[in-house]
Amino acid sequence: PAPMPQDAEGVSAVEARFRFLGSFLGKALLDGRLVSLPLAEPVYKVLCGFPIGVADLGQVDRDKAKHLFGLLEAADRGWPDISTYCLTFEYAPSSNTHGYEAHELIPGGSEVGVTNNNAHEYVERMASFMLRDGVQRQFDALLAGFGEVVPTSHLACFFPSELRQLLGGDATVTWTREELQEHIQPRNGYDATSRTFNDLLDVLCELTRKEKHDFLAFSTGVRVLPAGGLKSLDPKLTVVRKHTDENPDEHFPSANTCFHFLKLPEYSSKANLALKLRGALQHGFGGFFFN
User: Fold this and answer.
1) How far apart are the first and last CA of the chain?
2) What are the residues whose beta carbons fall under 8 Å from the beta carbon of 148, sequence distance 6 or more?
3) Of residues 270, 232, 218, 225, the one with CA closest to residue 249
4) Strand, helix or coil at 186?
5) Fewer CB within 10 Å, N side or C side of the chain?
6) What H or E segment, with its residue span, contains residue 262?
7) Residue 185: strand, helix, or coil
8) What are the φ/ψ torsions at residue 90 (nearest 5 degrees)?
């Protein structure tokens, strides 16, 4: 969450949103559903009860972390003179969305300049505001909302990386032909010996990393696989024959993401299948054109 003074006028409205987010994440975990949310690692740490500190700053604001750590290096070297940067003990947000232009990190911080001598204190207070003091109510609301669906004490058995996989899936999408053959079900016009089905397996193995993510988005609605990979997809990915009145090579595949159904015309060759599949991935999964 974006840090903000905890007594600011808009905090209550932000709290309500984070309470809803917590309930949403709890429901997704309870139902075993993946959610495509770019949550930073510290959020998963908080949910699992892990402490967060200065080392996590880069996961929240990479540019800010780079700037602050650069100040520490300069202070430790003794040059350049940090005071020439005219910094003060204030946090300035990147926008005025939350209704404030600056927040003093210490009483009278707007009048206290940052120097080589107090740079470490400045970085510590900045990190504390960004990771704790300025986000405490937001995190409390997130935990409260989550706890309305799943007791947060149950999350203590997970590492943050494990909870990330359970909620957001495995971002490293890889598969072998053997895995595809074992976990993709051919039905309604195709079986395991069908040429078109086997051509599809070959083409899926040839896809680039981005194309694999696109294929998952096209066929399942989510760009990642659940923890455990293809075998954990529920329902299983199913390939059915798409009947056409005309030449199958003139038609694109389509999908029903709710049931993980890929509707595949019986193409005349593997090359035509690859061409039409890549065309569908490029143009079709952003809407309902191929659904």
Assistant:
1) 35
2) 22, 23, 26
3) 270
4) strand
5) C
6) strand 261-264
7) strand
8) -140, 150
User: What is the per-residue pLDDT across 207-260, written as a single tens digit (0 to 9) for each?
Assistant: 999 999 999 999 998 889 998 889 999 899 999 999 998 899 999 999 999 899
Helices and strands in the chain: count of H runs, count of E runs? 11, 6
Contact 167, 29 (CB under 8 A): yes
Least Cα distance to 13 among 124, 97, 125, 126 occurs for 97
| 204 sits in which H/E element | helix 195-206
Q: Which two tokens stand for residue 284?
A: 């079709």
> 24-42 burial string, b = 16+ CB within 10 Å, else e?
bbbbbbeeeebeeeeeebb
Give the count of beta carbons closer than 10 Å to the beta carbon of residue 248: 19
Q: What is the pTM (predicted TM-score) of this model?
A: 0.79
The residue from 86, 157, 205, 258 that is catalytic is: 258
Verify whether residue 258 is a known catalytic residue: yes
